[in-house]
């Protein structure tokens, strides 16, 4: 009887420390993860970088860079031209899309923003890929087609 009590106590302690029976965990490992498009489009390559803490995304950066590393949302000339044509611009839509990942335990459905639907489609692909990397705990940059 004494052995059974000891075994039960050890099993209970293992479940408490190991998280037995906890539901709703995404399985994402703490760390930083990046996914980027494999190809440049119109001179820009989009990327998403997330930081995961306690299984949740605590910060998200979504942007694009050119071959020299210049960030798209810093390009004021591009911003003015795009805002006039589409009603939005990179610094606005990248923050809009990134905010949809923050606090998540898995890749959510992404609400598209009018005027940035192409980037929204890329963001969906990138966010799914970056969450998959976080679940694996693989911090290598993943390229997305």
Describe the structure.
The chain has 145 residues and is of the alpha+beta class. It has 4 helices and 4 strands; from the N terminus they run αβββαααβ. The chain has a 4-stranded mixed sheet. The longest helix has 20 residues, at 117-136. Mean pLDDT is 84; it is low at 7-25.
Task: Offer a concise description of the structure.
The protein has 145 residues and is of the alpha+beta class. The protein has helices at 2-18, 76-86, 90-99, 117-136, and strands at 31-37, 45-53, 56-65, 142-144.
Written as H for each helix and E for each strand, in order along the chain, the element string is HEEEHHHE
Low-confidence sequence ranges:
7-25
Instruction: Estimate the helix proportion, in percent.
Output: 40-55%
Broad shape: globular
Q: How would you describe the oligomerization state of the chains in this entry? A: single chain
Radius of gyration, whole Å: 20 Å
In whole angstroms, the N-to-C terminal distance is 60 Å
Estimated share of beta-strand residues: 15-25%
Strand order of the largest sheet: 3-2-1-4
Quickly count the helices: 4
**Structural class label:** alpha+beta
